[in-house]
TrEMBL record:
The MADS-box domain, residue ranges: 1-61
Functional summary from the UniProt entry: Probable transcription factor.
Region described as Disordered: spans on this chain: 176-248
GO terms assigned for molecular function: DNA binding
Name of the protein this chain belongs to: Agamous-like MADS-box protein AGL8
Domain K-box: 88-179
One Pfam family matching this protein: SRF-TF
Listed Gly residues bias regions: 210-224
SMART domains: MADS
Coiled coil: 122-171
Cellular component annotations (GO), alphabetically ordered: nucleus
Localization in the cell: Nucleus
Keyword list, A-Z: Coiled coil, DNA-binding, Nucleus, Transcription, Transcription regulation
Length: 248
C-alpha cells in the first residue's frame, strides 16, 4: 500500500512541535535558496517561532528593498482593483489611523518638553532620556560646527583688515617721506639764494643853508677887500638862539 496522506494539524506535544519546526524551517530556507538560484528570483522569507524568535532569508538584494517593492506592488494592485465606492470607504478607514498618529506625535512632543511623564513606565522614560541625549549631542555638534565656522570667518576678516591697515600705513609713510623731502629741498634752495647788495650812495657836503642863503653886506673879501662879516639875510627864518650865536 502507498503512503497515506498526513493530516495537517497542530502538534500537541511541545517537544515534537519544536523538533518539527526546526526540521521544516531548515527545509523551507533551503527551498527558498534553491528557487532563488535556479530561477533567478528575488525571495524574502520571514518566520517567527512560537516564542517570537525571528528567522529570515533574502536573496542578494536586501530584505528592505524586497519589502518596499512588495508594498509598491501591493499599493498599485489595490489602486487598479478599486471601484468608485471604495475610495470613500478607504478614507473612512484611514481617518482614525491618521488621528491616532497625530495624537501620538503630540504626546511625544509633550514628553520631549518634560510634560505628561506620569503615564510613562521606567523603560519608556529611559528610552526618552536616550533620545534626548542623542538629540543634545547632535545639537551641540552642530552648534560647535557653526561656532568654528564663525570663528574662522572672523579670523579671515581680521587678516583682511590687518592687510588693508598695513597698506594704508605704508602709503601714509611714503606720503610723509615725500612731503619731508620736498620741504628739505625747498629749505636748501632758500639758503643758497643770495640777495643783491644795494648800490653805494655818494655822500655830498651837508647843506648849511637853513631857511635861505647868506648875503654879503659889502661884497666878498675877494671883491671888496674889506673884512666884513656875513650878515644873514633878514628874510631868513632862523630861530632866535641861532641868531644870537651868529651875531657873536
Amino acid at each position: 500500500m502507498g503512503r497515506g496522506r498526513i493530516q495537517l494539524k497542530r502538534i500537541e506535544n511541545k517537544i515534537s512541535r519544536q523538533v518539527t519546526f526546526s526540521k521544516r524551517r531548515s527545509g523551507l530556507l533551503k527551498k527558498a535558496h534553491e528557487i532563488s538560484v535556479l530561477c533567478d528570483a528575488e525571495v524574502a522569507l520571514i518566520v517567527f517561532s512560537t516564542k517570537g524568535k525571528l528567522f529570515e532569508y533574502s536573496t542578494d538584494s536586501s530584505m528592505e528593498r524586497i519589502i518596499e517593492r512588495y508594498e509598491r506592488y501591493s499599493y498599485a494592485e489595490k489602486r487598479l482593483n478599486m471601484t468608485e465606492d471604495e475610495p470613500q470607504e478607504k478614507w473612512n478607514l484611514e481617518f482614525p489611523k491618521l488621528v491616532a498618529r497625530i495624537e501620538l506625535l503630540q504626546r511625544n512632543i509633550r514628553n520631549y518638553v518634560g510634560e505628561d511623564l506620569e503615564p510613562l513606565s521606567l523603560r519608556e522614560l529611559q528610552s526618552l532620556e536616550q533620545q534626548l541625549d542623542t538629540a543634545l549631542k547632535r545639537i551641540r555638534t552642530r552648534k560647535n560646527q557653526l561656532m568654528q565656522e564663525s570663528i574662522s570667518e572672523l579670523q579671515k576678516k581680521e587678516r583682511s583688515l590687518q592687510e588693508q591697515n598695513n597698506l594704508l600705513v605704508m602709503k601714509q609713510v611714503k606720503e610723509n617721506e615725500k612731503h619731508h623731502h620736498g620741504q628739505h629741498t625747498h629749505q636748501q634752495n632758500s639758503s643758497n639764494f643770495v640777495f643783491p647788495r644795494p648800490p653805494p650812495q655818494t655822500l655830498g657836503p651837508p647843506s648849511l643853508t637853513i631857511g635861505g642863503g647868506f648875503e654879503s653886506a659889502g661884497g666878498t673879501n675877494e671883491q671888496g677887500g674889506g673884512d666884513h662879516r656875513a650878515i644873514p639875510n633878514s628874510t631868513s627864518l632862523m630861530p632866535p638862539w641861532l641868531l644870537r650865536h651868529a651875531n657873536q
